[in-house]
Specification:
Elements (H helix, E strand, L loop, with lengths): L5 E6 L5 E8 L2 E9 L9 E10 L4 E5 L6 E4 L14 H4 L5 E8 L8 E3 L4 E2 L3 E4 L5 E3 L6 H15 L4 E4 L8 H24 L4 E4 L4 H8 L6 E4 L2 H10 L7 E3 L5 H4 L3 H4 L6 E3 L5 E6 L4 E6 L9 H23 L3 E6 L6 H15 L6 E6 L5 E5 L6 H5 L15 H18 L4 E6 L1 H18 L2 E6 L7 E5 L2
Parallel strand pairs: 1-14, 6-8, 11-12, 14-15, 18-19, 22-23
Antiparallel strand pairs: 1-2, 2-3, 4-5, 4-7, 4-13, 5-6, 7-8, 9-10, 10-12, 16-17, 17-18, 19-21, 20-21, 22-24
C-alpha cells in the first residue's frame, strides 16, 4: 500500500486573505479560502427574532442581524420550542426570540439556513445542549475503545445535554476528554447568559477562523505544516504543540506556486476532469444537488468492453472522492457511472468509492445504486465550496450558463418596440445591446424606423450580451 506524505500549506502573507491547501504526494486534495468578505457564518450562534411565518411552507424567516433573513425549516425546530411536532405556525409567533445556529451560508439571493438544534464544537467532542444522547463516530470501530469513550462521556455529562464523540478522541487520555467536555458546557452557559444581557437580533458566538477550524479538525495525521507568515508560524506551533508536527516557515515569494498548488487550483473549477485511462468525469453543481457524469471517452484499452467499463468506473470513483474533497461539495450527490450489466460490478465500484471517502474527515454516506443505475450519496456541508470562494454569479446569464442568441435578441427587440409603439406614440428611443446582436439589428433598423415612424439610436456594449435595454428619448 502506497504511503502518503501529507502537507498542509498555509498562504497568509496577505493577511486580508488566507488560503490553505492540503497536499498528498504533491497532489492537491483540499483547498480552503477565507477573507473577511467571504468568511463563512456556518456554526455561528445568534439570538434571533421571528420575522415572518410562512404557513404553506411550514417554515419561518428570522432576523439574525446580518441583513438577509434567515430561513428556519420545520425539521430544524427542536422540542424546546414546540410540542409533539406541532407545525411552525402554532409553535412560533412573530417577534418571538430564540437561539439559532447557521447550518448553511447565504447562496446568491437566498439568506442563510439556520437550526435550533445548536451545538458547540471542540477538538474531541461536540456538545449538544438540547439533547440527552451520547453518540460516537463510526470511524472509531474498536469495541473496547468505543465502550471506554461512551462510558467516560456519559459520566461527565451528568444530565447536562448530550455529546458526539469525534474521531480524534480515539485513544486520548481521559483527563483531556473530561477537560474539553467541561469547557464546552461552560461555553454554552456563557452563551445562554448573553441572551439575558443583549437584545435580539445579535451574534452570541462566532465560530473560530479558518486556520483554527482546520487545526482543530484536520491536521492530526499530517507530516508537516508550512506557513509563509512568521507570526502565524508561532501561533500554529502553540496550537499544535501536543501533535508533534513540524511547523516549517517558508520565506520565499509565492508559497502556493512553490508547492505546485497554484496550477492545480484552476483545475478545481473546470467542469471536466480527465482520467488517466482516457475517460473523463463532468461535475455540475446546482442549488439542489451535484450531478457527476462518467464517460469512457478515449479509453481504448485492449480487453473486453465490460472490463474496460469496470476499470474506468473504478478510476472515476477514486477521482470523484478526491474532487468532492477538493471542491468541498456537499449535500445530495448523484453519480451517473458508465452502464454496468452486473450487480457485482456495481458493488465493486461502490466499494471503491466508500473506501476513498473514508480518507475524508467530512462525514459522508454512499447509499448505492438506484433502479435507474444512478449512484446516490451525501456529504456533510462544511465551510464554503471552492466555487463560492473563487467565483461569482455571471452578471450576464445569472448563473444559467447560457444567454440568448443574437437572432433571438433582435426578434425580442422588434416585438418590444412594436408593443411600445402601440401603447404610446414615441418618436425616439435609445437601444443598448451587444455588438454581435447590434450588427444583425442594423440590417433591419432603417425598415423598422420607417414602419414605426421613430428614430432609433443604437449603442453597443458588451455589458448587454444576450440582453438589451430600450430607453425612450423625450
Amino acid at each position: 500500500m502506497m504511503d502518503f506524505f501529507k502537507s498542509v500549506i498555509i498562504n497568509a502573507k496577505d493577511r486580508d486573505e488566507i488560503r490553505v491547501g492540503f497536499v498528498e504526494n504533491d497532489v492537491l486534495m483540499e483547498l480552503y479560502y477565507e477573507s473577511e468578505s467571504l468568511r463563512s457564518k456556518v456554526g455561528n450562534l445568534y439570538f434571533a427574532r421571528v420575522d415572518n411565518i410562512v404557513e404553506g411552507m411550514d417554515a419561518a424567516f428570522l432576523d439574525i442581524g446580518t441583513g438577509k433573513k434567515a430561513f428556519l425549516r420545520s425539521e430544524d425546530l427542536c422540542k424546546i420550542y414546540r410540542k409533539n411536532k406541532e407545525p411552525v405556525i402554532t409553535s412560533l409567533k412573530a417577534g418571538q426570540k430564540l437561539i439559532v445556529q447557521v447550518k448553511k451560508d447565504s447562496f446568491f439571493n437566498k439568506g442563510p439556513q439556520v437550526t435550533t438544534y445548536v451545538s458547540v464544537t471542540g477538538r474531541y467532542l461536540v456538545y449538544l445542549p438540547y439533547s440527552r444522547k451520547v453518540s460516537i463516530s463510526r470511524k472509531i470501530r474498536e469495541k473496547n475503545e468505543r465502550n471506554r469513550l461512551l462510558k467516560l462521556v456519559k459520566e461527565i455529562r451528568n444530565g447536562k445535554g448530550g455529546f458526539i464523540i469525534r474521531t480524534l478522541a480515539k485513544a486520548m487520555d481521559e483527563t483531556i476528554i473530561e477537560r474539553e467536555a467541561r469547557e464546552l458546557i461552560h461555553s454554552w452557559e456563557e452563551i445562554l447568559n448573553k441572551t439575558s444581557e443583549k437584545k435580539a437580533p445579535v451574534l452570541l458566538y462566532k465560530e473560530p477562523d479558518l486556520v483554527d477550524i482546520l487545526l482543530r479538525d484536520k491536521v492530526n495525521d499530517v507530516n508537516e505544516i508550512v506557513v509563509d507568515d512568521f507570526e502565524l508560524q508561532r501561533y500554529v506551533k502553540q496550537k499544535t504543540q501536543n501533535l508533534n508536527i513540524p511547523i516549517i516557515f517558508y520565506g520565499g515569494d509565492d508559497l502556493f506556486s512553490h508547492y505546485g498548488i497554484e496550477s492545480q487550483i484552476l483545475d478545481s473549477l473546470d467542469k471536466k476532469v480527465n482520467l488517466r485511462c482516457g475517460g473523463s468525469i463532468y461535475i455540475q453543481k446546482t442549488e439542489a444537488l451535484t450531478v457527476i457524469d462518467v464517460n469512457a471517452g478515449k479509453n481504448v484499452k485492449n480487453g473486453r468492453e465490460e472490463d474496460v467499463i469496470l476499470a474506468t468506473n473504478k478510476e472515476a470513483a477514486k477521482e470523484i472522492a478526491r474532487q468532492l474533497r477538493l471542491r468541498n461539495l456537499s449535500g445530495i450527490i448523484i453519480v451517473d457511472f458508465i452502464d454496468m450489466n452486473e450487480d457485482k460490478e456495481r458493488e465493486q465500484v461502490k466499494k471503491v468509492l466508500e473506501t476513498e471517502m473514508m480518507k475524508d474527515k467530512t462525514r459522508s454516506f454512499v447509499m448505492g445504486f438506484t433502479q435507474l443505475g444512478l449512484l446516490e450519496m451525501t456529504r456533510k456541508r462544511t465551510l464554503r465550496t471552492v466555487y463560492s470562494s473563487l467565483q461569482q454569479e455571471c452578471p450576464v446569464c445569472k448563473g444559467a450558463g447560457f444567454i440568448f442568441r443574437p437572432e433571438i435578441v433582435v426578434d425580442k427587440v422588434k416585438n418590444d418596440l412594436k408593443k411600445m409603439h402601440l401603447k404610446k406614440k414615441i418618436s425616439s428611443v435609445e437601444l443598448k445591446m451587444s455588438e454581435n446582436a447590434g450588427k444583425l439589428f442594423e440590417k433591419e433598423k432603417e425598415k423598422l424606423e420607417k414602419e414605426l415612424n421613430i428614430d432609433i439610436k443604437l449603442t453597443f456594449s458588451d455589458a448587454y450580451l444576450g440582453k438589451y435595454e430600450i430607453l425612450i428619448v423625450k
